[in-house]
Amino acid sequence: MSQKQPDTVRDIMSRDCYRVSPETSITNLAQGLALHRLPGAPVVDSTDRLIGFISEQDVLGQVLDSIYNDGEAPLVREMMRNEVLSVTPNKSITDLAQEMLGAKPKIYPVVEQTRLVGIVTRRDILIALLKIRRH
């Protein structure tokens, strides 16, 4: 029996995704990003509403600075981006692939009715495109 060819973000997104609250320390965030091998993480409120995004690149300088200055790393809320590019679960994989060609994020939060329902990465899209190509 052949597997259904992926067509929408819903078919390939990670539902149980790493996310952080605005009160998470940058040090804890950095450890989580390293553990999960992610280029960034969505920031959500207590009801899982997407309120921001913070990338590995955003964190790198802060972690380095806290090492040099032996200081306390800031909280996610102090550094997160409030303007977040997100997608819906119904978005076409090929449409999102087109959007990801430029200097766009490597990871997109997947949002349904303002709630975070998953994430999709460039790697997820690439794997899906290879599956589509084989058919």
From TrEMBL:
Domain CBS: 13-71, 79-135
Pfam families xref list: CBS
Keyword Repeat annotated: yes
Domain of life: Bacteria
Keywords: CBS domain, Repeat
SMART domains, alphabetized: CBS
Name of protein: CBS domain-containing protein
